[in-house]
Each structure stands twice: as C-alpha cells, then as structure tokens.
C-alpha cells in the first residue's frame, strides 16, 4: 500500500523543550488509514495533525472498541533518530485487536508508516537529556451505528508528542499502596490488551491514590484479591533475597515490552528471575524477614520507576531506605543507555529511522 503525503501549510512553532508536559503538544503531521468490512485497509496517508471528522454514533464512543500503543523515538548524540523494539508494539497492538474483535493490520507496513512519519517529523525529536518523541499508535471503531456489535469500520492512526524526561530532576522513588477496594482486570477479561476501557475502570483508584498523596496503586488479582498484578501503566518487580520476582502473565496483566527487556537483561547478567504468582502476604512476610529489599515498576514512560514506600492496609514497607535501589539504578542506566545509543545494543533491539 502506498502512503500519500499532504504537508501542512502552517508548520507550528516548536515548544520550548524545558517546558514539555507529557502528551500536551503534538507534531505537524499524523498517519491515518481506514478499514471497512469487505474492503480491508486502504487510504494510508500522512496529513496535517488535526481533529477527526467522526459521527457522534461512532462505535468507539459508546462501546469502547479502541486499542492503543506507546513507544518513543530517541535522538542519539550523533544526531540520528532511533526506535526501541517497535515490532513488539505492533505485535501487541494486533493481539489487543484480536481480543477487542477488531481487524488486524500488516505489522511490517505499520512500521514503515511509523518510520516515514518520524523521519518527516525528525526536527520534533527533542535534544535534551532523557527527552524523546512519544509515539501513540491507536485504533478506533468508527461505524456510525448504536447497535452493540463489532464495528464494520475502523481507523488506525499514529500521532507524535515531544516529551520531557520523566524525572526532570533525576530518578526518584515513588510511594504506592496496595489497592484492596477496586480491581483492574480478571482472567478472561481484557487485562492483557492495551485498551482504553482498562484505564477507564482504574481512574477512580488513581484519583483516590493521588488525593492520599500516593503516585499509583498496586493492583491485586480480581478473584482472590491476594496476588500481585501490576501498577497503573507499569509492570512490577520485587527483589526477594537472591530472587527477582515479577508476576507471571496469565491474561490479566499487560505484557510490557520494558518488562520483557528487564527480564532478558537480568538473565543476561546472571540474576535469578522468576515469573510466578506472588501473594501480598508473601511480600509482607519477606519484608519482616528483611528479604524484601527493593521494588520497581517498568514501562515505556518512566523506563524504571523505583518504589520507596509500599503501603498494604496499615503496614508501611520502606524499600531501599526510601532511596533508589541498586538494581533499579543499574537497569535504568542500561535501558536508557541502549535507547539513546550511549551503550552497546547486544540484543539488537534498536531500529534506526534516520
Ligand atoms: C503500556 C502498559 C504497561 C507497560 O508496557 P511497556 O510496553 O513496558 O510500556 C504496563 N501496564 C499497563 C496497564 C500498560 O498499559
């Protein structure tokens, strides 16, 4: 499929890099293609960034047939632009599409479209340390029909947003509590899919956490309410003695690409990593024995997010003395080193754009 290009006639002033707020500013162009039952994908195009004409009866607005991804483009010291494991994002988007009963797309074509768009917008990739161009591919159901069934029309879009360093003042530990009231997902549901509905269901917990002075909540499984799942938009890791534990993927957890990369790096370094069930009681007991010493989240936005305090009911567990844990720092340096091209890429994760 050919990608047509309609250039903007009114390029925007680039924002001041020092005042970038996550997801607020967008580049000059976006990618779109359309799907209709019978016709498949067509009309791949790069057009000026702007509002979408959308029927108020569009399926996505009522029944949430929507999926998305998040990745970044990085500027290296040499001035080239590169991506981190983008094929994984498109594979996951198709997995999400399957669960949401939405059409799949050609992953190689999507990567070509993404590279074309990023190259066109290369001047929008920030220069400063830790800053990057956030990439948001997403799909929405657009059939104008209030019937509650799978849409017969969809749009696939990619929009780009320059973002600052997640931690402008350096890596910082966050405080988290174990959520005992709400649940995010259950096995058989949509927890493993990157879809807006999962977020809609978790906003209330996020808002309550923010009001209580916490940055996130740690979700427990939706059935027994005992087993650790994940945090907001991050997977989680725990250092328990000489074992590094992350919850196994059993359908209710988002299979993070950062999670997968952390596991691969840790194994490469010779650590003992387990993907298994981990109950909150086990964590609490390990803390009392002095074996639970470090916790961190992993996700594209923050890369590695050290946790300084974990609260479970009345119990406060202070980790790594409330400071950045040793392993968190080591992983952060390695991952960001690979992403920005400052360190070797032994796993061949980097895809060059230009
Ligand atoms: C995107 C996301 C993650 C992190 O995935 P990465 O691929 O590492 O960015 C974790 N949990 C949820 C719920 C997510 O949406």
What does this structure look like?
The model has no long low-confidence stretch (mean pLDDT 97). 41% of the residues are buried. Helices cover 23% and strands 30% of the residues. Helix 2 crosses helix 3 (107-120). It is α+β, with helices and mostly antiparallel strands. Strands 1, 2, 3, 4, 5, 6, 7, 8 and 18 form a nine-stranded mixed beta sheet that branches. The protein is built from eight helices and 18 strands. Bound molecules: pyridoxal-5'-phosphate. Residues 70, 194, 230, 233-235, 254, 256-259, 298-300 line the site of pyridoxal-5'-phosphate.
Salient structural properties:
354 residues; alpha+beta; nine-stranded mixed β-sheet; 8 helices; 23% helix; 30% strand; binds pyridoxal-5'-phosphate
Radius of gyration: 21 Å
Report the count of strand segments: 18
The number of distinct helices, counting runs of at least 4 residues, comes to 8
Order of helices and strands: EEEHEEEHHEEEHHEEEEHEHEEEHE
Largest sheet: 9 strands, mixed
Determine the mean pLDDT.
97
The level of helicity is 10-25%
Uncertain runs are none
**Computed structural class:** alpha+beta
Structure summarized in a few sentences:
This protein is α+β, with helices and mostly antiparallel strands and 354 residues long. The protein has eight helices and 18 strands. A hairpin with a 7-residue loop joins strand 10 and strand 11 (228-231).
Question: Which secondary structure elements does this structure contain, and how are they paired or packed?
Answer:
Elements: E1 4-5, E2 29-36, E3 40-48, H1 59-63, E4 66-68, E5 71-75, E6 81-84, H2 86-99, H3 107-120, E7 132-141, E8 153-163, E9 174-178, H4 196-200, H5 203-211, E10 216-220, E11 228-231, E12 235-240, E13 243-247, H6 257-268, E14 272-276, H7 280-288, E15 292-299, E16 303-312, E17 315-318, H8 326-339, E18 350-352
Parallel strand pairs: 1-3, 9-10, 9-16, 13-14
Antiparallel strand pairs: 2-3, 2-8, 4-7, 5-6, 5-7, 6-18, 7-8, 10-11, 12-13, 12-15, 15-16, 16-17
Helix pairs in contact: 2-3
This protein binds pyridoxal-5'-phosphate.
